[in-house]
Design a protein that fits this description.
Shape: globular
Number of helices: 0
Strand order of the largest sheet: 1-6-3-4
Structural class: mainly beta
Helix content: under 10%
Number of strands: 7
């Protein structure tokens, strides 16, 4: 498994994000929350999921795949 670092994306506490694999190969990611929570996910080609952080921020770590193929969309806050 190719262990790549944190992709630099944070999902703030209470914030939602759509996470999508835009490539034709599987991507393996983990979502880490501040309270020692870790969720490991294998995203199939074209698969997307909706994630909402709980009471603490979450960070996205890519373990396998190219970061360019990981699309993370966070809705803009109303100003």
């Amino acid at each position: 498994m190719n262990n790549q670092p944190d992709v630099g994306e944070r999902i703030s506490a209470g914030e939602s994000a759509s996470i999508e694999n835009t490539h034709t190969d599987k991507l393996s990611i983990s979502l880490f929350c501040g309270d020692a929570c870790r969720v490991d996910i294998d995203l199939a080609p074209g698969q997307a999921l909706e994630f909402t952080a709980g009471n603490s921020d979450a960070k996205v770590v890519l373990h396998h795949g190219d970061p360019a193929n990981l699309l993370i969309i966070k809705p803009e806050s109303a100003s």
